[in-house]
Amino acid sequence: MVLRQKMATINQNKARLTPKVDKNNMSNYREIVLAHYCQGIPKLSDFEIIEKPIPEPEEGEFRLRHIWNSVDPGTRGRLSGVASYSPPLGIGSPIESFSVGVIEKSRHPSYPEGMYVAVGGGWKTHSIQTGEGYVVPISGSARALPLSYWIGVLCVPGLTGWFGLKNTQFKQHDQVLISSAAGPVGATAGQLAKAWGAKRVVGIAGADEKCDWLVNEAGFDAAINYKTTDDLDAQIRQTMPDGVDLLFDNVGNDMVNRVLPMMNLNGRICISGQVADYNLPLEDTPGIVNTKYFITHRLTMRGLLVFDYAAEFGDTFKQLAGLIATDKLNVKEERYQGIETTAEAFCGLFTNQNFGRRVVQVSDEE
Length: 366
Fold this sequence. Notes:
Layout lengths: L4 E6 L17 E7 L12 E7 L8 E9 L28 E8 L9 E4 L6 E4 L5 E4 L17 H12 L7 E4 L5 H12 L4 E6 L2 H9 L5 E4 L6 H8 L4 E6 L3 H7 L3 E9 L20 H5 L3 E4 L9 H13 L5 E7 L4 H6 L9 E5 L5
Parallel strand pairs: 1-15, 9-10, 9-12, 10-11, 12-13, 13-14, 15-16
Antiparallel strand pairs: 2-3, 4-5, 4-7, 4-16, 5-6, 6-8
Helix pairs in contact: 1-2
């Protein structure tokens, strides 16, 4: 099997959280908690690393040693002390994320020691799991893929790209525009659209390197650098002369408002994420004013929470893995090393520093 992947390992001496830990104490684990509610773009001082004794699993539980943790833009909505689609985290609460690791101690009959699983584990080095909620065993042929994929293309980002297109009634020969296209959700959605027979797929990104990758590696038909164009509206029209059938938006209201006049009859809009709006208070969030096009062009706009489709995850994992194995899905990762780099990796998501899925390795894979 040939894996088309491009990874960047980031292990630079940048500003990081200073862990309050004794690294020689092997009976303790580390986790990152919310130290202050985030105001605007998150910063390192909003987080703190603490140390606790490694817990023992009780009957019906298992203890997971985390190997990879994710950093997710959607987490930002829970860090301001204000409810979004999920309750806000309290001060001192561990930051939630997806994790993949190995079971090192188990009192659960279905999850033996030595099994690899992906879970909702959090920014931690260890966690206690009950086997409920999001728990995906990784065994057999699935182990041929990098473990980090199970918190990336084979987790919420990839699933969001998949079900976002399905939820928005993707059709063969659609002309698809994707914002934040070099991110893991947008890149997956664009490649899936091409694999499923889109007539044209155009991505919007914020660097020439990202645009080059989208075209030359991910197979997009074209890509637009929104930072260097003098007139983004004109550039979109020029690059998509036959209009937009499906907008897959990861940016926010300003992008939706911009593209509405370019939508074709019976066009569809997927609201996948709002990375440009996450850090804005409600009163400063741009509005959508071009609403007349919903009437004149019979448009449909839908949002999604990917866990609404949880019953379909198992089959989707297999299909995504098959696309990777047959070179139809290119995976781009940025790999950080050490739990102390987690907050840095997360904060950079909101300053256009990331290029691909960001994951943090917190222990060895062996």
